[in-house]
Every structure is written in structure tokens, then in C-alpha cells.
């Protein structure tokens, strides 16, 4: 009798598990860690999808580059080994050099322009059609991911104050170019080493969005912040075409709607955070300056020329169409 009860209980548990199991167990890989705005927004996305699909879709999140860097995860999307990830528009320059336009310093002045550059220009539409067809990746939505600013161990009141500044930058072409053409000395360095390098004056400054500067506590070892606004970062919610095609139409709509809401939330986190953070840094004894951006942008002209030489007519189209959005 006891054995029968155990068998019955086991059977019921099995039935219960099967009743509540999701029809689709999907994976979302990301580079950012669990304390980031990005993670909060992706959590929002996963919860929204689960709720609106009535539990038919369950999304597991893999933060902190557990599945590899963004290049690796894009390949996993193409191969159908990963379902979702985040990626900046400019990051696609590793496949299509013309995508670098999205991160040319001072090219994109605000998020509204950034979004239109991706979704509404002929250049953007053609590029992401190509990405869809050749890489097997589709854009679900576009979010704002912060604007890069400069901290330093001296006040930056104008471009002249950048001269000779040993500036830590990530090993990315556009960031290296920013430092070089405004007169600083670009110093590529692993992100994990930056705090100590600033603390010991191995470098004089670094550049990152304000939420990153706060999260890494760079304000403890840098008492000057210049709002250079040199590169605006977007963040695309990306889905594997293979995954998306396997979902029925009603669940495709759930995913699309949830990604749009998540992108709005993602954007709000960064916009609200940036508003509050200037005052936060001031409260920590940081001197905040707002140097005139015009000389900075003018100094980058040779780099724009390099971009045009590399990318020919498609590069010219990209710059022309994006600049037209600002008029």
C-alpha cells in the first residue's frame, strides 16, 4: 500500500511538472553583470514575456559574459545556439565596417537621432536587412545605453586641456580615435585594471557613461568630470531568426511587444540615472565642467575622412543621412 502511495505521488508530481512546464525554454546571453541597468531591463523583458505568454515562454538570463563576449554570442544567435542578446549598433562593424558610423565621436547627438539612424534611414534599413539575411539576427527594439563622458585628475575646461592627457580607452577604433584627435594620449587597458591605474596615476583619466563611472567608483580616485558627450551608446535587443521563426505568430507578437516595453524601461533607467548622477558626483566632491563640444567635433574631421575613404559611397550615404536627421 505504501509503495502504491509513493508511486501515485510520484506520478502526480510528474503530471504537475508537465502541466506547468513552458513550451519554449529560451536563453538570453549578455555581457553586463547583475548590478547593471542592462540586467534590470532584461529581467523586465523576461518577466513580461512569461506573463504575457501565460507561461508558454520561459527566458533564462546568462549575465557577465558567461556565454562569451558579444562577438561569440552573435555567432551563437546565428547558429541557433542562443536565442537573445544585446548589442550596440556600432558593434556590427566587426562584420560590416560601415556600421562604425554609429559610434563616430560627435556623429549622433541624442538618442532620438540614434534610434532614427537605425530604424528610419535607408542606410540603417539596408544594413540591418543585410544583418538579418547574412547573420541570421533580427532587431527587436532599440534602447539608450548612456553617453560617454571623461573623468580626469585635472579640470578639462576646453579641448586644450586634453593635450597630453594619458587617457584610458577600450581597445575600440572609435574610442582610440577620440583620444588621439583631441590631443590626448590613448592608452588601451582592460576594464578591470582601470580603477588601480587611476588611483596610482598610471593614467590621467578615462571615459565611460555616467552609470559606469558610478558603479566602478571612479569618483573615489578622479575628482574632475568633463561632460564631453563624445559617443552615444545605443543597445539593440537582438533575436535569433531561427528562434523567432519557431514561435507561433501570437508568441512572436508577445516577444516583440515585450522587447519594446523593455527598451523603454532600459532607456528610462539611463536617462533618469544620468540626470541624477551629475548631482551625485558633485556631492562626492567632484568638479563638473562642460567644455564646448564644437572644437572637439572639428578635431575629429580627419577621422571622419578616414571613415569615408574606407567605406566609399555607403559611408557617404551613412553620414549624409544621419546628419540630415539633425537639421
From TrEMBL:
Transport recorded as keyword: yes
InterPro entries: DctP_fam, TRAP_DctP, TRAP_DctP_sf
One Gene Ontology cellular component: outer membrane-bounded periplasmic space
Localisation per UniProt entry: Cell envelope
Signal peptide feature range: 1-21
Keywords: Signal, Transport
Binding site for N-acetyl-beta-neuraminate: 88, 148, 168, 208
Gene Ontology biological process terms in this record: transmembrane transport
Family to which this protein belongs: Belongs to the bacterial solute-binding protein 7 family.
PANTHER family: PTHR33376, SIALIC ACID-BINDING PERIPLASMIC PROTEIN SIAP
Name used for this protein in its record: TRAP dicarboxylate transporter, periplasmic component
Organism: Canicola haemoglobinophilus
Encoding gene, per UniProt annotation: dctP_1
